[in-house]
Amino acid sequence: xxxxxxxxxxxxxxxxxxxxxxxxxxxxxxxxxxxxxxxxxxxxxxxxxxxxxxxxxxxxxxxxxxxxxxxxxxxxxxxxxxxxxxxxxxxxxxxxxxxxxxxxxxxxxxxxxxxxxxxxxxxxxxxxxxxxxxxxxxxxxxxxxxxxxxxxxxxxxxxxxxxxxxxxxxxxxxxxxxxxx
Length: 181
Description:
This protein is α/β, with parallel strands linked by helices and about 180 residues long. It has helices at about 1-20, 55-60, 85-95, 125-130, 135-150, 160-165; strands at about 25-30, 35-40, 45-50, 65-70, 70-75, 80, 100-105, 110, 115, 120, 155, 175.
């Protein structure tokens, strides 16, 4: 875990330096989650249960971009890796944002190598169990499902379309609806 912790901290610091150099004022946040569930089959991997540092609120109030490393701390002070998509979902619950955008290399959810434009809440389970999505995309879609079932819509796209996503309702990737109609 020491190597993971060191690497994530370096990545965080480097990203903050690059953003600040471009006049995008940012602040690195590290070890802000407390760990609830610990996966015993995976060494030093856990699920976030709470925020132990409210630096996100300070960043938002100061118009500073928070750069968050997915690292958590248990009751004994041990560090744990958190899947970035799980940390993201936890932060969505905490922040309750107006819009949720998940960036992917593929620009959204692919089925038979074709982009799925829209997915209804009721279609998520069958899509996940069909075997038509796998690996990293399946993990992202599972986290998106949890977010959708909390009442949020989710847009999945790539970084090239981020601006379009910020200023449109459905954008260019995959739009996942939380409503059932």
